[in-house]
Write a structure and sequence with these properties.
It is a single chain. With about 200 residues, this protein is an all-alpha fold. The protein has two domains: about 80 residues, no CATH class; about 120 residues, no CATH class. The protein contains eleven helices and two strands, in the order αββαααααααααα. Strand 1 and strand 2 form a beta hairpin. Helix 6 packs across helix 8 and helix 8 packs antiparallel against helix 10. It starts with a helix and ends with a helix.
Amino acid sequence: MASIDDLIDGILAREGGFVNDPDDPGGATNYGVTIGTLRRLGLDVDGDGDIDTDDVKKLPLATARKIYRKHYFEDSGIAGLPAPLQPSVLDMYVNAGANAIKILQRLLGEFGQPVAIDGLLGPLTQAAAARALRAAPDHFVNAYGIARRNYYYALADARPASRKYARRRDGGKGGWILRAEEFISEEYRLTAAQHAARTGAW
């Protein structure tokens, strides 16, 4: 079983350093931590009295790690999920916030374990996830990854500016899709032709 430090290492490798892409609704990020997260936590990194892009740029790696551990893993409730689910749900939570939990909650309903779809990961959702995983140990983690992939495609369908995250300029899979498929068994990953068909209308 991967430790939380291993999970954080993987996220940091996927996220990279400072980025301020105008097409990203999340705004400026560093190590995957957004300016919105710094503001929500009240982290004035440079101590100048406001929280802006400069604070994102100057965010220490050690602070990013602490944010991942406390706010994304522990406070979110992901630490209470079955271990096999934690890597994909945590990675999705960093990328999409409460939508990661809503995807899980909708999926639980499809697996006969209905819970409120409220984006809050409390004891009821945690227990339902444990039951679903016990009932379908060979399928549930893949099903979450597939639902996550579908969420990214749907975002790109609805928002043309986001399509570059789902499809590269050469037509191949973009970062969002590759990221989701890291947590899906190879047999359920889309072929290049399937991806091209899915994005052909763009």
